[in-house]
Amino acid sequence: MGSVIDIVFDREVTGYEGCDRYSLAEVYFEKKFDDLARRLGVAPLGDFYSDDPNKLDGDFDEDFFDDPAELERMKREMGPEEFFDPADALKSVTVLRDHLRDNPKELKKSPRRNKLVDELTEVEKTLNLAKSQGVKFHFVLTPD
Question: Which domain holds residue 34?
């Protein structure tokens, strides 16, 4: 079982159908993409990651921790769930997508380059839709 990236909104986005996305976590969390984003002068996509710390309650049963305070410590470290303005992420998504599309040698060893470009195009459409409706978002890692 793997994990995928999903987009969570602070309220409903009319017209959004998330099931059409590739959800490739590679572009969100691999160091090479963080480095590429910084080199291109934009924020890494991981900067727009957040999650609800209370979800950890469902991820671990009471037998997982010897000390229940450890789960509470993890939740505090995770911090509160944050939502971001889509306009802030759109620049990163567009710059990364255009760079990967226009510079095929950048990921010459990745057979998923075209899927990454397609994924970023879908994310761009989704963020534009959210922006047009004044909806905030964050990326989240979810089990596949």
Answer: 3-50+82-143
